[in-house]
Design brief:
By secondary structure, this protein is of the alpha+beta class. It has two domains: about 5-100, Serine-tRNA synthetase, tRNA binding domain (Helix Hairpins); about 115-410, Bira Bifunctional Protein, Domain 2 (BirA Bifunctional Protein, domain 2, 2-Layer Sandwich). The protein has 13 helices and 18 strands. An eight-stranded mixed β-sheet has the order 1-11-12-13-16-10-9-4. A three-stranded antiparallel β-sheet has the order 5-7-6. It has a three-stranded mixed β-sheet with strand order 8-14-15, with no helix packed on it.
Length: about 400
């Protein structure tokens, strides 16, 4: 979320960025600036009457007063209360409008179409390969929990549970080796945590809400992990701050049904390992490139086909200035599945959450925040067993053997 001061200074760049996103409410920019000026005018008037009231109060305190002074003091108090009510309304209107403005896209974001940045395989697959939901049944790896929780939930069994756990541990270990500090986080957060990371108001309908406690189930570990540093004042030598966490994630995913979301493609509850970085405005794109290389290294080590997509402006999430999606190929479905998004949110979240750093010159600046999946487990699980399937067994990738403790999953 941008403060009005920056919108005023960079109005032209803001409008160009919003046009790049096909943002349809450009008229609110001028309205925001008008409300901001109205707010400043009311503040000046309030300060005038506050100064007058302070002066009269001085005379009244020392009994140098008469009925006229008392009358003026009462009048000034009334005007100050009225101005405070007007200011409250202006702050409310400004807040309502400001949260509708998405982040401004980076110049690196393609305008109209997503851009292929990298692909590690020329696809040539046997059409007889089974999709992961058939492999799950054949090898007794997982089944769905409709009888327990409804559609969109699954149960990993025996070797499937073991493979799931191996993937989580492998991803976490790779992150920790790369300098990301591990956190164990709550799966429930308050509304401010959701708002601060940009889940509200954009994704409100996707969230699970506990009415009695006024808490939300997390849609991703990014939400509690970034909020760990809410209202922090960091030092420049603290940066980049790097953190990782494994959590379950919960999303309603309204309208999730049919062949496009069959199997593990889209779930209401799924496991994910997340990484975040907090850096200075000068170095956030260095962090972004580092995170992209890191996720690329993990996927390369698993030796499955994947590609990297630079999302176009119209595909960007509200908080993101630049996003690269990582997609693995599912040969059993003949489609690509997203397993990671690495995003630079610049100072969008930091303004909402009050995350700042103090430079060596003693000045305070808002940080830039970045996040990435490293990795989303169900789709990675699906692509892995499809790419490593044989008629009588599923091969375990070499880098996972020490975690899985076997090199194959056999038919029971």
């Amino acid at each position: 979320m941008f403060p009005t001061s920056l919108i005023k200074i960079y109005k032209h760049q803001v409008i160009l960025g919003l046009r790049k996103r096909n943002f349809s409410k450009l008229n609110i920019i001028d309205y925001i600036l008008k409300l901001e000026q109205d707010k400043l005018n009311q503040i000046v008037i309030k300060q005038y009457f506050s100064a007058k009231l302070k002066q009269i109060s001085f005379f009244i305190r020392y009994n140098i007063h008469n009925s006229l002074l008392i009358h003026k003091a009462t009048l000034y108090k009334h005007k100050i209360n009225l101005l405070e009510a007007i200011l409250k309304g202006l702050y409310h209107q400004l807040g309502h409008l400001l949260i509708q403005i998405p982040n401004i896209p980076s110049p690196k974001v393609p305008l109209m179409k997503d851009m292929l940045m990298y692909q590690n395989f020329n696809l040539a697959y046997n059409n007889q390969l089974l999709p992961h939901w058939e492999l799950g049944k054949k090898f007794n790896l997982f089944h769905f929990a409709a009888h327990i929780a409804g559609s969109g939930f699954n149960i990993y069994i025996d070797q499937g549970a073991k493979l799931q756990r191996s993937l989580i541990k492998y991803c976490l270990d790779q992150n920790i080796k790369a300098g990301y500090m591990e956190y164990v986080l709550p799966f429930l957060v308050n509304k401010q945590s959701m708002f601060g990371t940009g889940q509200f108001p954009d994704k409100n309908k996707q969230m699970y809400f506990l009415e009695q406690d006024k808490l939300y189930l997390i849609p991703t570990a990014e939400v509690p992990l970034i909020n760990v540093f809410r209202r922090s004042l960091l030092k420049s030598n603290d940066l980049p701050l790097k953190a990782t966490s494994f959590t379950s994630c919960f999303r309603r995913e309204a309208g999730s049904y049919g062949i496009q979301v069959k199997g593990l493609n889209r779930l209401h509850q799924f496991d994910k390992v997340e990484i975040i970085e907090i850096n200075s405005y000068q170095n956030s794109y260095k962090s972004f490139n580092y995170m992209v290389r890191h996720v690329k290294k993990i996927l390369s080590s698993l030796k499955i086909p994947f590609r990297i997509i630079n999302l176009s402006a119209k595909s960007l999430g509200v908080t993101s200035a630049l996003t690269y999606d990582f997609e693995v190929f599912s040969p059993g479905q003949n489609k690509w599945l997203e397993v990671s998004s690495v995003s630079n949110c610049t100072n969008f979240q930091a303004h909402r959450l009050g995350i700042q750093f103090m430079n060596n010159d003693g000045n305070k600046y808002f940080c830039h925040t970045l996040n990435g999946s490293s990795l989303a487990i169900p789709r990675l699980f699906a692509a892995l067993i499809e790419n490593y399937q044989f008629s009588e067994y599923i091969q375990i990738p070499k880098v996972l053997i020490n975690y899985f403790m076997e090199n194959k999953i056999y038919l029971n």
